[in-house]
Amino acid sequence: MQCLKMLGQEAELAGAREKAITYYCRALEVDDRTEEIYRLLMACYARADRYREAVDVHDRCRKMLSANFGAKPSSETEAIYQTLQKNIVSSTLKVNKTRNCRIIKPNS
Predict the structure, then answer these.
(1) I want to staple 73 with a disulfide (CB 3.0 to 4.6 A). Which of 12, 13, 58, 77 is the partner?
(2) What is the residue range of 84's domain?
């Protein structure tokens, strides 16, 4: 799992986010009890503007921690989650503003 984590981090540094996401997902398949991998995956999804998927990863992490350890996510994980929530709201507002704009076509 550590190798997959390192490969994911290297892929991110190289700008290959999709590859990094694949490595982090694979790491969770190997061991889904490591909160750090969930955080890395959440952050990678966020950098790819895939906020909903990042929130889904947070939810999986929260459920895993509760079921296996009777614990809640760390403050670091929750900080990423709060940032995701803000980005989702911001993205939604931008989309709504765009939808409310009238497009005026020039006369032909």
Answers:
(1) 77
(2) 2-99
